Amino acid sequence: MSKILITCAITGSIHTPSMSPYLPVTADEITEHALGAAEAGAAILHLHARDPATGQPSAAPEHFMAFLPRIKQASDAVLNISTGGSAVMTLDDRLAAPKRAEPEMCSLNMGTMNFALYPAAERITEWKHDWEKPFLENSDDLVFKNTPRDMTRILTEMGVERGARFEFECYDVSHLYMLRHFADRGLVKPPFFIQFVFGVLGGIGPDPENLMHMKLIADKLFGDNYMFSVLAAGRHQTPLVTMSAAMGGHVRVGLEDSLMIARGQLAKTNAEQVVKIRRIVEDLGREVVDATEARAMLGLKGADRTAI
Ligand code: KMH
Ligand code: ZN
């Protein structure tokens, strides 16, 4: 109960440059934000790449490799590469960088779903780049495809063949049952690190009752063989993540999930969010673990066994 993992998700593929001038997009910015977050107490860095010229989410291995070795050289933090990428990317695209980097950890999205970003478009009056408006608006007819075949492929190519372990991203109760299915098939081994995701339009809503229920069902399905962490979108980040810490869960913050540091105030760095949640969880009596302890808790292969 006492030890707590802080994950920081640095940039993601949801927010666009017009939403915040502080969203990191270049390799320099992603490196600087990631190192700041690690310094502030994030044991795990969840990473996506962007095209440095436009800020558009990118699956290109060269965009990832422009920052991954720099972060690894300067920090001991666990590097966790997204296999979700962006819902507009093919699975081949989404897997290209993780297969190249062979990281200790990857995300794995546990179901096909709607991933609706279009309400955010209404709040933007000035667009920095041409791609942003259609990217957000067209999400009203976009499927984030994660079929059992896709998940099997990620588990096999990243887990079985490259020794990565997973951040299982569960956006609904049904996704927990999908994870149980893969555990029953022997494709994944405990301890499972399950990220409960709240507040994505298309996934479960950011209600405290939903967190209670997700934990109840996860307890039933996985017993002592799992750890849960919470991320929540936008203004729901701090309340839901704090609730997780109070319930014995772990926490994820970062500009991927929320651009804010307080009501009406943009976060200038990822580190600010880590500092804030660290203060809260320590006040709750939790002990923030470093990357070495995180590796032991999660059963990771070690930074020296990656291709970064
Ligand atoms: N931004 C989160 C809601 C992934 O990278 O695989 C989802 C996410 C997906 O982190
Ligand atoms: Zn992500």
Report on this structure.
By secondary structure, this protein is an alpha/beta fold. It has one domain (3-305): TIM Barrel (Alpha-Beta Barrel), CATH 3.20.20. The chain contains 11 helices and 16 strands. Zinc ion is lined by residues 9, 12, 46, 48, 82, 84, 107, 256. InterPro entries: Aldolase_TIM (IPR013785), BKACE (IPR008567).
- Cross-sheet strand order for the largest sheet: 2-3-6-7-10-11-12-13
- List low-confidence stretches: none
Mean pLDDT: 98
Shape summary = globular
Structural class: alpha/beta
Distinct compounds present: (5S)-5-amino-3-OXO-hexanoic acid, zinc ion
Strand composition percent? 15-25%
Give the terminus-to-terminus CA distance: 33 Å
In total, the number of domains comes to: 1
CATH topology: TIM Barrel
Report the strand count: 16
Calculate Rg over CA atoms. Answer: 18 Å
| CATH structural architecture | Alpha-Beta Barrel
Q: What quaternary form is this?
A: single chain
User: What is the element string, with H for helices and E for strands?
Assistant: EEHEEEHHEHEEHEHEHEHEHEEEHEH
What would CATH call the class?
A: Alpha Beta
The CATH homologous superfamily is termed Aldolase class I
Keywords: Metal-binding, Transferase, Zinc
Cofactor: Zn(2+)
InterPro entries: Aldolase_TIM, BKACE
GO molecular function, one term: 3-keto-5-aminohexanoate cleavage activity
